[in-house]
Amino acid sequence: MNPELIRNFSIVAHIDHGKSTLADRILEKTGAISVRERREQFLDKMDLERERGITIKSHPVRINYRARDGQTYCLNLIDTPGHVDFSYEVSRSIAACEGVVLLVDAVDGVQAQTIAHAYLCSDQNLKIITVINKTDLPSADPDRVKKEIEGIIGLDTSKAILASAKEGWGTEEILEAVIRDIPPPGGSGQEPFKALIFDSWYDSFQGVIIMIRVFSGQISRGMSIRLFNTGNQFLVSELGIFSPSPQPVESLGLGEVGYIIAGIKDIREAPVGDTVTNSDSPTLTPLPGFRPLKPMVFTGLYPQDASQYQLLREALGKLRLNDPALTYEPETSQALGYGFRCGYLGPLHSEIVQERLEREFNLSLISTAPTVAYRITRNSGETEMIENPNLLPESHLFQGIEEPIVVATIHSPTLFLGAILKLCEEKQGVQKKLDYPTPNRILLVYELPLSEIMLDFYDRLKSLSRGLASLDYEPMGFRPGNLIKLQVLVNGEPVDPLSIIVNRDQADYKGRDLIQKLRELIPRQLFDIAIQAAIGGRIIARESIKAKKKAVTAKCYGGDITRKRKLWAKQKEGKKRMKRIGVVDIPQEAFLAVLKTGQS
Prior knowledge:
The protein is of the alpha+beta class. It contains 13 helices and 32 strands.
């Protein structure tokens, strides 16, 4: 195919700004899907994506479009995930393009992820086509949104396209702008073969299917390929394109986007961002930007029914085939039995994995509160990552502890500035920037501990701003913290899943708050239950749940008082024995109470 007739582009936007809907209109306009095949969010294959209105897994598609100049062009629409948890996948999808369509809501205007995506595209020198969507709504204000785009992002909006993806307005203008403004792919077909893996998934019949964008040379069926960063070699058994259904082809050349099937059994052998090259004449330099996926958030997953442990193991193994970012290892808890310690990219990724396990594999699970990975420096000078609070050693065994920090960008109407500043300070944030891009909007940049972001920060931000504030964040490394482990004891026995690492200055307050919530959630038994919060060997808070009362003297209708006293003494001895051998059933809500500490 002539590279001059190829255009590789992506659509980027904040959540709910209409990215998937615009993709539907483009597919319909170009005839890529028939009337019979039409449905909302066509490129979103998972039920969760449709229900939540976000894209979790990207799906590329090749489109043939006859432009106004009479020429037929090959457009490769490389869809991107729509949440900050999947920012690395977004960066690799964008790296496979020469330009993007930046979609901005005509009502909400510029939001945090709009800014993040725009800067990411600018850093990679991509051509940005500005589109203002939802102009059909009565409350739409395109002129205000244009001023926000120019003032906040710095893009020229004189040629911004006004569109309504829902009604189909402006779709043709967007396609013409893609052909006119986005350059064709560069590179040479004579150089050694080099391609970028921007997505991959597992098929139970064909193995791992990897999506590539060719940057130089050509790949053909039967070629031996090598992955630059992993060093793995494979033989290509099938090549193809998605238009939008898979279609096998004999070869893929410069600038083309397609898939490779090469008998790869493990998705970790073909990581997203790696460079594919010819084994016989490999390229000397890989494509930039590759980094291994590292989990940022960790939870414990336990089956409510202990007999489902093996089913949970098998379900995690199957889910791992399609999700290389998911990690898991067995762990045991005195309170919950056998389970797994799972690692995720972020809080949303954690929710998605648990929901898929329950839906697709029919499991009933208990999830502990999410934690992050801390870095400690032992007395010997060695550093170690601690993913589970229970593995944190005694304070005299290490020199210091560091926690992961993120740079959070908050975009909000000016009206809520005071409440947002108070929230960020409460969450131990350090303010780095405060701008007024327009008279009625603020742009805040804070350094915040990741542990504070993943708990209730987003919900509280939305609540106090009436849903009008937006949040985006990216990791920036580790920072020393004044941290300590807070343990919960039930009848003197530690409950490992309820252990958390907290700031020492807030430990007493959070301990009392957590114990009070647990007192309300743990059901009463036939014996007294003592709930305690402890730091090391020091008890900082205690609550008691009184035993249920049973009127053992109800059958006594008179007689000497000693008869009743004997029954009461017998009952007292029975409760003592029951307390020694009794088991306290801790409900799922008790583990979620850790998330709500600090809320009124």
